[in-house]
Design a protein that fits this description.
Length: 239
């Protein structure tokens, strides 16, 4: 997980709330509602750099969805950090919304992320919200794709979201291996340092790399190991 900096509330959501102020019974999120889901999803995707809020899986952009004649419901679903079951008043509050895998239209078995969190309530139980600041320091990723919680709250979050599900572990390991050892050859320390900086920079389509936090941590460790090895070879530090 990485911290999400919330942007401005979408104008469509502000207008929807204003249009229904005389009919508050219409101000709800869910089936049958006129809630502006498409425009809200687009805003969430952009501020999250097209990564799932919980898993950091890549989420297709609105442009990619449109190219297939689809809306962003084929990219993600709107997740409420404070679940609707326990916080109905927060169900239409933008600051309680994030974009998550799987998509609203997905018909796939998914044993991790928002699907597993379900109605788990972070207001009452230990959980690291992706909307909190500096959450990256709570998690440590290994080269084989596993994530470790460094605080009790992080350990609970990993357990609730099943962030060590085999699919996520294998995907993260493949991304790390592919960038640090392309074609089986280790990159240099300097290249690893550049990579660690680059994964924090969105591309021209406003996307960050999938599993960017795991990749950043491992790139920094890779560079540090090579730098220490070079220093020992020069006799600058002891083994």
């Amino acid at each position: 997980m990485r911290s999400i900096r919330k942007g401005a509330e979408p104008r469509a959501l502000i207008e929807w709330r204003r249009e229904n102020r005389e009919t508050p019974q219409n101000l709800y999120y869910g089936k049958g509602s006129s809630f502006p889901s498409e425009l809200v999803r687009q805003a969430l995707l952009k501020e999250q750099f097209h990564l799932c809020a919980y898993t950091l899986r890549r989420l297709p952009t609105a442009v990619e969805c449109a190219a297939k004649g689809q809306g962003t419901q084929s990219s993600c679903h709107i997740e409420h950090v404070l679940p609707q079951a326990h916080h109905k008043a927060e169900s239409i509050v933008y600051d309680n919304m994030v974009a998550c895998y799987p998509s609203s239209q997905a018909k796939v078995a998914c044993g991790y992320g928002a699907v597993e969190k379900a109605d788990y309530d972070p207001a009452r139980k230990p959980f690291i919200s992706p909307l909190a600041a500096n959450i990256e320091r709570h998690f440590r990723y290994s080269s084989d794709g596993y994530v470790e919680g460094l605080t009790p709250e992080a350990k609970s979050t990993i357990d609730v979201l099943k962030l060590n599900h085999p699919t996520l572990v294998n995907d993260r390991a493949a991304v790390i291996r592919g960038r640090l050892k392309p074609r089986g050859i280790c990159i240099s320390a300097a290249t690893a340092r550049r990579l660690a900086d680059e994964v924090d920079t969105p591309d021209i389509q406003h996307r960050l790399p999938e599993y960017c936090l795991a990749l950043k941590q491992q790139a920094e460790l890779h560079a540090l190991r090579l730098e220490k090895r070079a220093a020992r070879a020069r006799g600058q530090i002891r083994p």
